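Hi team,

Filling in the usual template for the complex we talked about on Friday. All components are listed, including any nucleic acid strands or ligand strings, so the model treats them as one assembly.

SUBMITTER: L.P.
PURPOSE: interface mapping
COMPONENTS: two
RESIDUES: 360
SEQUENCES:
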Amino acid sequence: MVRKTITILSQLALIHVFYFAGVGLAHILSLPVPGSIVGLVLLLLSLFAGIVKLEWIEKAGGWLLAELLLFFVPSAVGILNYKEILNWQGLETLLLILISTFIVMAATGFTAERLYRRKRKGEHHS
Amino acid sequence: MTTALIILIGTIVTYVIYRASKVVYKKWPLPFFHPLLLCPLILIAIIQLSSLQPSDYALSSSLWTHMLGPATVAFAIPIYKHAPLLRKNIMIILTSIAAGTLVAIVSSLLLSLVLHFNGDLLISILPRSITTPIAIEVSKTIGGLPTLTTVFVIVTGVTGGIIGPYVIRLMALKSPVARGLALGMGAHGVGTNKAMEYGEQEGTFSTIGMIMAAGMTLVWAGLLIPSLLQITIL
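RESULT (copied from the run log):
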């Protein structure tokens, strides 16, 4: 238990190194991309280059991705700061987001599914 | 109370209520019990019933908000593990996300016009499909209000996490690439979290879909959105 905690914490520290490197780099070069995305690219490159081994970060990374919803909770509670949204226009906005999200998912999924089937058919014939 | 103590309490309370919400959702998987709906609602009730200010809670839970950064970095892991799979499907990914980002922007814009939304609200809602940090960047670029955009991103995530499985069933999406891209494109990190429940491949396609969607929306924000806004508002 103690050992597992230490492993996760040290792996989490290593992921933080990439996160802060990304934030720093994005700031210094004033990139239009957030530091966390730059950190993702840095980690990906390090993995491919063999500088970082997958086992060094896999446990903490798995935990971060599994508990992703937890990290959105404070922002969701932050909706409290927008009490003015809780009115008729708020309901309309919710409806807009619901319909638009439905269309976006359907369009993206439909396109991908079609292309996937066509590609598989093509591979089958050749 | 010292700041350290406030953060300690906020971190623990948020975590415990989040865990409990997950248990409830696992036992009764109803849309209303989605952890990103149930947990914030309980916390909002606690804040309203006590003398706490929303800003106090924001400070006390800042450790969890901070973790979104390292969690984004950790998305490198599934991409690395499944690099050959992604390379094999690169054309499907690019085409689908190009379609998805365009549909996201245009449908938000048209629906906003139908509902007679005005300037700030309309502009701030356009980048709502993509992950928070980049949505904020896009919002700034096109002249929206970043904080309002954040709210729309969260609402989109919760909505997409709930309706995602219904869309997959309704559209008969069978392949991991279609399922993953639909979830990642439509509901960023929250959708990707759902995709990982389907399987590792779905999770990977969702991750790459989420990142590509953010990148492409950044491009549209520079090239397409300004002229779209000019045509429709002016």
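MY TAKE: The mean pLDDT of chain B is 90. Chain B touches chain A through 102 residues (CB under 8 Å).

Thanks, L.
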